């Protein structure tokens, strides 16, 4: 499996399948057909079978998938189950919402520190996470190692903050600022674009009329 | 085209193509091959050609796509270019970040009012949007009609708030609360799950090691 390239959109769908399987498990379901799982996820079932076939064969023809087994397998593929330590860059509204988002630590994503340059915010503690001045980043990362940097700064600060993270050996960046980050190829950057969600909703609303 | 069902994930990819084309256009590009566009978007090129073929033929074999023409076409499919009026439910950190998110009005998504039940927040004006008490929802919607409700409340309040929106004839809901909303079939609900982004990043980080 190592070395073969899985498209980003496939990984996105795997995470979506995992979320949906978790929900079905909570609802007390145990077995599901690929058609039903595809419908729950809003993908077509040929697509779903193709995605899962990347990683070997699952499911029993005519019976369906075991939800716990499939979920375990997808989680293993996604590398879920381990803990990731993160620093937050920018403790504004979005940043504080992320610090308070209870579903992140539940899934193993833990903030060890937050950074800002606004004296008003420095020294605050949000959901047990301390807000440091940006110039303490190197020092804090030596004390509290982290693998992921989450950027929730204004657009104009995002590249500078990303460069600092990369200098300090952060290998994964999730960027919520609405700007593309330039980065070396050995650093992974995911961009979040909330407007895509609004576009998707608008598309379906247009078709209602 | 009417009446034929396009999977949610296809619509998501169309919005992603639109964002990427906008970026390429800003960078001064005019023509792109399907392979190059697919690479920029992180999808495979067979997938991209298949998605676009839903809506007719584009591009010239051996030459590629005209970026402005393709973008215009995708925007038309997505129903972009019109304005959507929205109410925000919950003016906490995430809600205020959304009110301040400059990329939404740029793309035609405009908040007309915000609602909360916290007396501290009621009466505030965030980025020209007034925060009302939740019990003024019907009255405000009569004065300022809106099509979309954005839920940024705690999980436990989300269903009640969604029910209120639906009673008041809102047809589209974007739910940021980490809980599934029950709704009649003539209302469109999109759920945003930020944890999927973190999962995707973790997947690629695991493969770096």
From TrEMBL, chains A, B:
Q: Which InterPro entries match?
A: CoA-bd, NAD(P)-bd_dom_sf, Rex_actinobacterial-type, Rex_DNA-bd_C_dom, Tscrpt_rep_Rex, WH-like_DNA-bd_sf, WH_DNA-bd_sf
Quote a single Gene Ontology cellular component term: cytoplasm
Listed SMART domains: CoA_binding
Spell out the SUPFAM superfamilies in the cross-references: NAD(P)-binding Rossmann-fold domains, Winged helix' DNA-binding domain
Question: What subcellular locations does the record give?
Answer: Cytoplasm
A single GO BP term for this record reads: response to redox state
Major localisation = cytoplasm
Keyword annotations of the record: Cytoplasm, DNA-binding, NAD, Repressor, Transcription, Transcription regulation
UniProt GO MF annotations:
DNA binding; DNA-binding transcription factor activity
Asked if the record carries the keyword Cytoplasm, the reply is yes
Q: Where does NAD(+) bind?
A: 90-95
Q: Which residues bind DNA?
A: 16-55
Record-annotated CoA-binding domain positions? 79-180
Pfam name, any one? Put_DNA-bind_N
Q: How does it assemble?
A: Homodimer.
The task this protein performs is described as: Modulates transcription in response to changes in cellular NADH/NAD(+) redox state.
Family, per entry: Belongs to the transcriptional regulatory Rex family.
The protein's name: Redox-sensing transcriptional repressor Rex
This protein's species is: Thermodesulfatator indicus (strain DSM 15286 / JCM 11887 / CIR29812)
Q: Which gene encodes it?
A: rex
């Amino acid at each position: 499996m190592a070395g073969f390239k899985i498209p980003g959109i496939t990984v996105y769908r795997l995470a979506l399948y995992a979320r949906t399987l978790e929900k079905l498990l909570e609802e007390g379901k145990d077995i599901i057909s690929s058609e039903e799982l595809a419908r729950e996820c809003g993908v077509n079932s040929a697509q779903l079978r193709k995605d899962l076939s990347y990683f070997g064969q699952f499911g029993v023809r005519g019976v369906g998938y075991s939800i716990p087994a499939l979920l375990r397998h997808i989680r293993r593929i996604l590398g879920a189950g381990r803990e990731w330590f993160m620093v937050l860059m920018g403790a504004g509204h979005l940043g504080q919402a992320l610090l308070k988002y209870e579903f992140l630590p539940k899934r193993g994503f833990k903030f060890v520190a937050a950074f800002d340059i606004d004296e008003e915010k420095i020294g605050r503690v949000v959901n047990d996470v301390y807000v440091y001045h940006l110039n303490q980043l190197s020092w804090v990362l030596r004390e509290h190692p982290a693998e992921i940097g989450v950027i929730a700064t204004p657009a104009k600060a995002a590249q500078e903050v990303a460069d600092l993270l990369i200098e300090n050996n952060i290998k994964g960046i999730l960027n919520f600022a609405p700007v593309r980050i330039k980065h070396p190829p050995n650093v992974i950057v995911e961009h979040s674009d909330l407007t895509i969600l609004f576009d998707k909703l608008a598309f379906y609303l247009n078709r209602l009329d």
